[in-house]
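Whiteboard transcription, Tuesday session. T.W. wrote the structure tokens on the left side:
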């Protein structure tokens, strides 16, 4: 299986740090956020290669990847203009191949093994188009909130609305079937957003797998500070 890490975001809410450091390289536990993801991915023998998209301060990402032990299994693709989450998937359709693909927003941080989402997806193949990692959030109005049926399939999706029904949130960590890429392509535009344009159209064929361990969207300076204190792999002297 191949994996795509969406890492091209500007990180505007993390300024001034992200004026000189790409969002995917902010340090947590003494190491760039991106390397925590790569540790997790390459710990699973089913992940053969990883693709990372770049935009802001792309040379910094290139230099870090060149220093890693897995560099020969990592591909980089530069986006001169941001394509949106779905647009990046579409632009790299040939690289993704014809089977299931792991896709994650690299500005999230979790200690979940990729098997936590890959295994349920493979078991449900044929009945679902996508599997997503879900987590309980203390701030539901800032997330995409899920409503599930008895099979744990998503029947309602509420993207950043006031007073959503519950606190089970989309973690933006997925396994896609090729059908998802085909649906992105059918929109007919290069810039596509997964949350607003693709996920609602796939209900109820999205399986949600809840994770009760560490999960954090490193989107703000407050979230970054919290992650540096609470991430299980932290080294307090280097956080």
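and on the right, the sequence the group agreed on:
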């Amino acid at each position: 299986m191949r994996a795509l890490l969406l890492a091209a975001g500007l990180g505007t809410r993390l300024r001034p740090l992200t004026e000189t450091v790409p969002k995917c390289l902010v340090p947590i536990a003494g190491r760039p956020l991106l390397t925590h993801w790569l540790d997790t991915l390459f710990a699973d023998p089913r992940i053969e290669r990883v693709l990372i998209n770049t935009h802001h301060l792309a040379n910094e990402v290139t230099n870090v990847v060149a220093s890693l032990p897995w560099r020969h299994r990592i591909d980089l693709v530069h986006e001169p203009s941001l394509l949106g989450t779905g647009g990046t998937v579409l632009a790299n359709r040939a690289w993704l191949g014809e089977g299931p693909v792991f896709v994650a927003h690299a500005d999230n941080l979790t200690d979940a093994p990729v098997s936590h989402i890959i295994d349920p997806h493979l078991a449900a193949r044929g009945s679902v188009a996508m599997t997503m990692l879900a987590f309980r959030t203390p701030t539901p109005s800032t997330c995409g909130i899920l409503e599930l049926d008895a099979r744990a399939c998503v029947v309602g999706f509420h993207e950043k609305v006031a007073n959503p029904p519950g606190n089970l949130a989309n973690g933006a960590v997925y396994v896609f079937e090729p059908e998802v890429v085909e649906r992105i392509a059918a929109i007919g535009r290069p810039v596509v957003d997964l949350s607003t344009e693709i996920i609602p159209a796939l209900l109820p064929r999205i399986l949600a797998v809840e994770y009760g361990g560490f999960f954090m969207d490193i989107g703000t300076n407050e979230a970054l500070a919290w992650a540096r204190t609470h991430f299980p792999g932290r080294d307090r002297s280097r956080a």
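Someone added at the bottom: The longest strand covers residues 168-176.
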